[in-house]
Write a structure and sequence with these properties.
The complex is a heterodimer. By secondary structure, chain A is α/β, with parallel strands linked by helices. Chain A has helices at 3-12, 35-44, 49-64, 103-111, 141-145, 154-160, 162-168, 179-187, 428-436, 441-452, 454-457, 462-476, and strands spanning 26-28, 87-89, 125-131, 134-138, 150-153, 190-196, 205-211, 221-227, 232-240, 247-250, 253-258, 263-270, 282-293, 299-306, 311-314, 317-320, 326-335, 340-349, 355-364, 369-378, 386-395, 401-410, 416-425. In chain A, strands 5, 6, 8, 10, 11, 13, 15, 16, 18, 20 and 22 form an eleven-stranded mixed β-sheet that branches. A ten-stranded mixed β-sheet of chain A has the order 4-3-7-9-12-14-17-19-21-23. Chain A has a two-stranded antiparallel sheet with strand order 1-2. In chain A, 59% of the residues are buried. By secondary structure, chain B is α/β, with parallel strands linked by helices. Chain B is 41% helix and 28% strand. In chain B, the strands form three sheets. Chain B has a six-stranded mixed β-sheet with strand order 6-9-10-3-11-12, with helices on both faces. Chain B has a four-stranded antiparallel β-sheet with strand order 2-1-4-5, covered by helices on one side. Chain B is globular and about 60 Å long. Classes of the chains: A alpha/beta, B alpha/beta.
Chain lengths: 481, 254
């Protein structure tokens, strides 16, 4: 074994650090999915009938759909009857104030580096904490409500703000959009809702932290962000799960609605359990994320750092309906061991003078497969539109793969599209150069990888950037060839 | 400072170094010259700890430590610096950031406190003058899109920042025009002191007009076959290597 292979070995043998679980007493649905389960979930959440009917419609639709097979990922057939679709920690949910929060749960989040104690939160981030199927705590609700900003769990929003939910739920990602969005629409259990009224710049970062805890359960959360005219919000999403030998399904839906002049910045650091070194276990992360720039001059920006999950399948997209609206997608996707990622974006230009920018950095190590899949579509009436795409891949070792699938449709002659792509390898030479200057192997790789991903990392909010940099280094330590 | 005894090294079964003996003391500048393929760059690489070479015989003692047992980064932290013949590009990483990480890892290894940003930048400003390097260049991605001269100046700038006890300059003069050569040499001469030593690996005598060596060694077929003072370099310039090859061939034949 050469030295570099050894580094690769060490690198790939790093353990997942959030792999523990806690024994909460849980309130669970039985295994499997059918209309009864959908009713069970709706009943648990004490939902109004319109919500139940919405779910049932989605469920009936889902039953008629086939699981899609077009992506560049391979996994054994999922037994949808072998999953529990609802699991809630018994003591969680529906707390009136943070003081009522189960201390065990607070500790769980402390351990993940998420403080739910508002006094301790000096860095100005409001958090909605979700364990398995339910939201257990939301911080800074009062501070935000003074500005008219609504930030709460999805379940609460269904009860408290039905008019908003009825208006926007499914408006960007309809249940019929795809197999997993239909499934999510039928059984989603919680998530976050955030509403920024006209003219308000949300003064703090809003964030949702998702944690899968229970075994054999799927997590199906729903996030809905509505930004009215001239408003601004920056939203963060983080996720982890315990180490388990079986695969767990995570099929979320995120919808963003941006009205005239509104700007929404959505950042994700996805660190679900990726499975072990042999590829056993890990999360199937099948997520539909889409935003619409409904009004003129609206802007939606997706930034994602994807390091976890056994299989990732997601394409945070923008529908640029308003004239002069802007869509951005910045992504770093890291795969190691047997991880597979098929991720990218869709930029649908409908309005005039719309612009989109795609920067995708894929890093593959071990025996992993990393694909960028993107679709840039410029409609006939979207005159003078522009897109710039850049897809760079970095390979570590000689057993991994990097793939790029860019699709481009342009229906007018006044628009411009640019696509750049590179593939490179972390070189022995680069490592030696760093080491010769006194850097150890781990720092060398961290430095090189973060340099590669810099353009994307620069788009993360400060609080996240440092964490994400460490995570990148941790996921990748040692993968050189 | 460094004592190399009977050093043999091979790469993929091909023996490149075939018994190198070299003593370098603090305060000295040694030049290693020789024709293409004589093993000059291999010697530099082996001393710096590059992978891929197998040491089959011999020893290298650096400041009392067995250098060959140390990892490349440990050698660097002990004070060995290699100015690369082909400096490597690292996209997205500025020279500033790179050097700060490097210098602080070296400091921690030596039991010193890492430098804070302000002190580091102050040190940088001071050292920048030595090789007339521009702040803007140091903010750009390391070596990416640098001209040949900029790359070599950057190498000597790094040497100034890391203040090694033993600096090995591997063909630092290659690809330099006269002005750049003058600047780089001036930098090296400024860094020369009674406490450090410099080994200059070069093809040409030209560099040695600027960086005047105490000793000149001729490397041939992986062995040092002749050692002299700076006049030896002039002699080589005039006569080429053939007369040494012939003399050495005759010696080996005996």
């Amino acid at each position: 074994m050469s030295k570099d292979d050894q580094i690769l070995e060490e690198f790939t043998s790093k353990e997942y650090e959030h792999g523990w679980s806690v024994d909460f007493e849980a309130d669970e649905a039985p295994f499997g999915i059918n209309e009864e389960i959908v009713r069970f979930i709706s009943n648990k959440k004490k939902e109004p009938d319109w919500m139940l009917q919405w779910r049932l419609k989605a469920f009936r639709l889902w039953e008629t759909l086939e699981e899609p097979k077009w992506s560049n990922v391979h996994y054994p057939k999922i037994n949808y009857q072998g999953i529990k679709y609802y699991s809630a920690p018994k003591k969680g949910g529906n707390i009136k104030s943070l003081d009522e929060l189960d201390p065990e749960m607070a500790k769980t989040f402390e351990r993940l580096g998420i403080s739910l104690n508002e006094q301790k939160k000096l860095n100005g981030i409001a958090v909605d904490a979700v364990i398995d199927s339910v939201s257990v705590a939301t911080t800074f609700k009062e501070t935000l409500s003074e500005l008219g900003v609504i930030f709460c769990s999805f379940s609460e929003a269904v009860i408290e703000h039905p008019e908003l939910i009825k208006k926007y739920l499914g408006s960007v990602v309809p249940a019929a959009d795809n197999y997993f969005s239909a499934l999510n629409s039928a059984v989603f259990s919680d998530g976050s809702f955030c509403y920024i009224p006209k003219g308000v710049r949300c003064p703090m970062e809003l964030s949702t932290y998702f944690r899968i805890n229970a075994a054999n359960t799927g997590q199906f959360e729903r996030t809905l962000i509505v930004a009215e005219d001239d408003s601004y919000v920056s939203y963060l999403e983080g996720c982890t799960a315990p180490m388990r030998d079986e695969n767990q399904l995570h099929a979320a839906v995120v919808e963003i609605y941006a009205a005239k002049n509104a700007e929404v910045k959505y950042s994700t650091v996805q660190n679900w359990y990726p499975g072990n070194k042999e590829g056993l276990g890990g999360i199937y992360n099948f997520v539909t994320k889409r935003g619409i720039c409904a009004g003129d001059h609206a802007k939606i920006s997706w930034t994602q750092v994807e390091t976890g999950s056994a299989v990732t399948w997601k394409y945070p997209s923008c529908i640029l309906k308003g004239d002069y609206s802007v869509g951005e997608f910045y992504s770093v996707a890291v795969t190691n061991n047997y991880q597979q990622a098929d991720t990218g974006t869709k930029m649908i230009h409908l309005g005039k003078n719309t612009r989109s920018r795609i920067v995708s950095k894929g890093i593959s190590a071990g025996k992993s497969q990393n694909s960028y899949r993107g679709h840039v579509s410029i409609a006939k009436r979207a005159v003078n539109s522009r897109n710039f795409s850049q897809c760079d891949s970095l390979l570590m070792g000689d057993q991994c793969g990097a793939h790029t699938f860019p699709y481009i449709d342009v229906e007018n002659s006044t628009s411009q599209i640019e696509h750049e792509a590179t593939t490179s390898k972390i070189g022995e030479d680069q490592i030696f150069y760093c080491k010769q200057r006194g850097l150890d192997e781990e720092s060398s790789i961290a430095l090189i990888v973060n340099g590669f991903a810099k353009e994307v990392m620069n788009n993360l909010p400060m609080e996240f950037a440092v964490e994400a940099q460490k995570l990148l280094a941790l996921t990748l330590e040692g993968s050189v060839g | 400072m460094i004592s190399i005894k009977n050093l043999h090294a091979k790469i993929e079964d091909k023996e490149i170094l075939r018994g190198i003996n070299l003593e370098v003391k603090a305060g000295e500048v040694h030049a290693i010259m020789g024709p293409n393929g004589s093993g000059k760059s291999t010697l530099a690489s082996v001393l710096a700890g590059r992978d891929g070479y197998e040491i089959t015989e011999g020893s290298v003692i650096f400041k009392g430590k067995n250098l060959l047992e140390l990892e490349a980064e440990e050698r660097a932290r002990e004070g060995v610096f290699l100015a690369f013949q082909y400096p490597v590009e690292i996209p997205g990483v500025s020279t500033t950031n790179f050097l700060k990480t490097a210098l602080n890892q070296i400091r921690v290894y030596r039991g010193e406190k890492p430098l804070d940003a302000v002190t580091f930048l102050k040190l940088m400003k001071e050292k920048m003058k030595i090789v007339e390097i521009d702040q803007a260049l140091l903010s750009r991605s390391l070596n990416e899109g640098f001209s040949g001269g900029e790359k070599k100046r950057n190498e000597i700038f790094q040497m100034a920042m890391l203040a090694p006890t033993l600096a090995i300059l591997d063909e630092t003069d290659s690809g330099l025009d006269i002005d750049a050569l003058r600047i780089v040499s001036h930098g090296v001469n400024t860094l020369r002191s009674a406490d450090n030593a410099i080994v200059v690996v070069t093809h040409y005598q030209r560099l040695l007009e600027y960086i005047v060596p105490d000793f000149v060694h001729v490397l041939l077929n992986g062995q040092i076959v002749k050692t002299g003072d700076k006049t030896l370099a002039l002699e080589l310039e005039k006569k080429g290597y053939d007369w040494i090859k012939a003399a050495h061939g005759a010696l080996e034949a005996q």
